[in-house]
Design a protein that fits this description.
With 72 residues, the protein is of the alpha+beta class. Helix content is 32%, strand content 22%. The model has no long low-confidence stretch (mean pLDDT 85).
Length: 72
């Protein structure tokens, strides 16, 4: 299993922190932009330490690298 547990809340929290807003105010919700089940499956079922998942959400590049969520 990858080091990143429960990736969806971590992604939502990271984007909300980057925008200095509460996570519940993010519009559109992450589920309308990326499939949360697919993200969780990719991250949680990966045996690779080199897994990288990238996508854009609310104008931010969201990246998971080796168990860390990064928002730029």
């Amino acid at each position: 299993m990858n080091a990143l547990e429960e990736p969806i809340p971590k992604i939502v929290d990271a984007v909300a922190d980057a925008e200095s807003v509460e996570p519940v105010t993010l519009d559109p919700p992450l589920a309308e932009v990326a499939d949360p089940d697919a993200i969780e499956t990719l991250v949680e079922d990966s045996t690779s330490a080199e897994l990288e998942v990238r996508f854009a959400y609310r104008g931010h590049a969201v990246v998971d690298e080796s168990g860390r969520v990064q928002v730029d």
